[in-house]
Amino acid sequence: MTGYEKLMSIIAVPEGWLLTLIYNFVSNYGLTLIIFTLLIRGCLLPLYATQIKGSMKMQDIQPKMMEIQRRYANDRAMMSQKLSELYKEEKYNPMSGCLPMIIQMIIIMPLFFLLRDPMLFINNQSMLMGVHESFLWIEDMSQPDSWILPVAAGVATFVSYSLTMSMSPNVNGTMGMMKVMSFFFPIMIFWMARSFPAGLALYWFVGTCFMIVQTLVMKKYRKNLKEKKKVGKAVKTA
Questions:
Q1: What is the reported pTM?
Q2: How far apart (Å, rounded) are the C-alpha atoms in residues 88 and 94?
Q3: Do the Cβ atoms of 156 and 208 come closer than 8 Å?
Q4: Residue 117 carries which DSSP code?
Q5: H-type helices in 117-197, by residue range?
Q6: Does the pLDDT at position 152 exceed 90?
């Protein structure tokens, strides 16, 4: 085990315990991965919601930010001061989305190593054969699936990225780069999924589908919130 893998094991080993616990109940590795993925994503839901709310808030105040940037384009100090005043007035923290993202990565990165090589972090004989079980059309979950799961993972990634992009503000012209990434990233996921164990590809697909549902719920929440604000303003002006 390399130094980096030892570092990942701090989180990967406890995640392996949870994976083994679920497997001992359901006795099917593919089903275990689905339940495991949903549990992990469910635990990360509050962090994801905080991140999305921060992105939505930034999108709401973006017109005011752009006006400040245009007005004080030649005075960086004044621009910074006015932006700080805007953030304080709107009760918005520009770093609000960073901490949830970092915590998610701390949890998800060890998962990648765990599902790529489960027996490196799991010391359980029942799992030794379990990771080689078949699931649906896949004969061995420890081996790559050539097409179906990689395509499904790539498509799910494209849909998820596109939905997230539609809720993200176009800060300093970043939308063009995000559009490029919306195609490049799913292709990369498809290509990687063809070489990684099917279990890892299944985890990515299920987790991404979970994120799609989360994003749709957040979009609906945002739409309802905007409608309530409009009604509130209409009542005040009446």
A1: 0.74
A2: 10
A3: yes
A4: S
A5: 125-130, 148-166, 175-193
A6: yes
